[in-house]
Sequence to fold (278 residues):
Amino acid sequence: MYSPYARIAILDMYDGHANQGMRSIQEIIDNFAHYKDADIEVDVFDTRGGAEVPGLEYDAYISTGGPGSPIDSEGSLWEERYFGLLDSIMHHNLICPNDKKSVFLICHSFQLFCRYYGLAHVSLRKSTSFGVMPIHKTDEGLHEPLFANLDNPFWAVDSRDWQVTQPNLKRIEEMGGALLCIEKYRPHVPLERAVMAIRFNDAIIGTQFHPEADPEGFRYYLKIEEKRNLLIAQHGEKKYIDTITHLEDPDKIVLTHNTILPTFLEMAIGASSQVLLF
Fold:
């Protein structure tokens, strides 16, 4: 019988910091492989900590979130290698349109991509954003296949000190992309709305939020006093209690976790013609 086969590279951007993202991404891939009866080979590259990057032998690349500034690393060895890989992927996709490599960029990686390719303004927020937040689709986002099964707005975990604003729509469109999601639109608040997702082209997409986040991971962070106090300070005790109460709701972060990255894998692996014959 035939079994789908694919190779996935995870670019670990956590720089050795403890996190829940790597666990959750790996679990999503494992669950997808089990559900689809697929043979998926996964390799992890310590990109920020060890300047490790893969070659072009993978079908899909997931570049994770991570701590710290997406600006201060400019000119570093690991960034040179990282963007060398992304440039190579985009060149490959241009000359091999029937064998494209798919890329998903999460949070820190999304910020880096926007900064490096001049697609938006990347800056430090006035305060940390942390919690389960509504994500609002743009008109283009309503037609994005990865978000098709999600409401508008949908819910996702947001955890960042930096933000992407002032998208250069002309440059994004020239790349073949579109602005997909923004923060909650509040015209009475004199602050720019952050960009929450961009499709950069038909093979590369990124989100400012964390689509891999699950209730287990969020509860882990809330055990950290600093994170718990931050959520309460920003949103109040009632919001904190409501967030904990509704973590397992099937229409909130559970749905986002079960939808976006699995759909990305479906599209990425479906585009690959590789099979194993038993």
